[in-house]
Design brief:
Oligomer: single chain
Low-confidence stretches: none
Number of helices: 13
Strand order of the largest sheet: 6-7-8-3-9-10-12-11
Largest sheet: 8 strands, mixed
Order of helices and strands: HHEEEHEEHEHHHHEHEHEEHHEEH
Helix content: 25-40%
Shape: globular
Number of strands: 12
Mean pLDDT: 89
Distance between the termini: 53 Å
């Protein structure tokens, strides 16, 4: 049995690698049956449970759900950045551009991160090193992965600053000299500097005003088409999902509970939680209409119920929902829902009635 590497369970390391045929054509990121636990003082937090995702070149997957649903943990796992301790990847496989990153040593991972896969982190305040200029931080990955000289790398850094809406003459300034929104743009410039083949964006536009937000989304679209980039967009904003994503996966309490094309998830909604997300949005056609927030809170990930994690908040829940976790059902070749209510072939949620 192979010795455990950092925070990865031995059974993960000993699993046979998938073949190119099994991975599929044009698949840039392949995550299968990913399970991640955080183990603290004897408690086990099931942060991600049996998550399977695929993203092909030139495609964008929107990963949506409440805070604490497991979206960021899934993204960190995709870069093999789960903190150790307390995190441990208990099960699954992750392939980036055909390479099983869970079996890579630290030196090999350094070559993959930044060039093959890159991430725009959610919090710009902690993503930048306060003692280095923003230019040095953007140029670092370019020098490592593309072998450019310091002068050439700094020129690339200035170009990236201009792309995200910051004057190039600020390249020698430090993070504390920038506003929160500008720091977020610097973080985006760092992630995009090497034109990564897989880009994970974790709430990339949260701190930006609408004008810069539109510019950043346009930049990501251009990158996707020019370099055949595959993208995962993690966001709470369903408007951004509608604008930039081809496919959507909805997470709740660490599991994917609905997944499909943008049209399927938006117009043929199947899961009650997804219905609740849409019903929580303002109605632009009826200004007097009241919002319909989802009642209650997501369960404690350290004490998940044995049945459906959404049952206590779901108006359709029955006793059967509380007895066993729902299985995944494929309602088409691309559309999946995990909901026990569909044991009744006549079940339909209210949003589907409106469609």
């Amino acid at each position: 049995m192979a010795k455990r590497i950092k925070n990865i369970a031995p059974e993960v390391l000993n699993a046979p690698d998938l073949t190119p045929e099994e991975l599929g054509e044009d698949v840039m990121l392949d995550i299968r049956n990913l399970t991640v636990h955080y183990e603290v003082d004897g408690d086990v937090v099931e942060a991600v449970s049996d998550v399977t995702l695929q993203v092909k070149k030139r495609k964008t997957l929107g990963l949506v759900g409440e805070t604490g649903a497991g979206k960021t943990t899934t993204a960190l796992a995709a870069l093999n950045l789960i903190p150790d301790p307390p995190g441990i990847i208990k099960k699954g496989s992750i392939y980036v551009c055909g390479e099983n990153i869970l079996k890579k040593r630290p030196a090999e991972l350094e070559k993959i991160r930044g060039q093959d896969i890159s991430m725009i982190f959610q919090d710009p305040m902690t993503s930048l090193n306060p003692v280095f200029t923003v230019g040095d931080q953007i140029a670092e990955s370019v020098r490592i992965h593309e072998g450019l000289s310091k002068t050439e790398a700094m020129e690339r850094a200035m170009e990236m600053l201009e792309i995200v809406g910051i004057p190039r003459n600020r390249v020698n300034e430090y993070p504390h000299q920038f506003s929160g929104g500008m720091k977020q743009r610097v973080v985006i410039a760092c992630a995009l500097a090497c034109n990564p083949r897989v880009l994970i964006a974790d709430e990339p536009t949260t701190a930006l005003d609408v004008t810069i937000q539109a510019q950043v989304l346009d930049l990501m679209r251009d990158l996707r088409m020019k370099y055949d980039t595959a993208m995962i967009m993690i966001t709470h904003d369903l408007g951004i999902v509608a604008d930039i994503c081809d496919d959507v996966a909805v997470m709740y309490a660490g599991r994917i509970i609905e997944q499909g094309t943008l049209d399927e998830v938006f117009n043929e909604t199947r899961h009650p939680y997804t219905e609740g997300l849409f019903n929580s949005l303002p109605n632009i056609h009826d200004r007097q209409a009241r919002l319909k927030p989802i009642p209650g809170l997501m369960p404690d990930p350290a004490n998940l119920p044995k049945g459906c994690a959404f049952a206590d908040r779901c108006k359709y829940a029955t006793d059967a929902c509380k007895e066993a976790r729902p299985v995944q059902r494929w309602v088409s070749d691309t559309h999946m829902v995990a909901c026990t209510a569909y044991d009744d072939p006549d079940f339909i949620i209210e949003r589907s009635k409106k469609a």
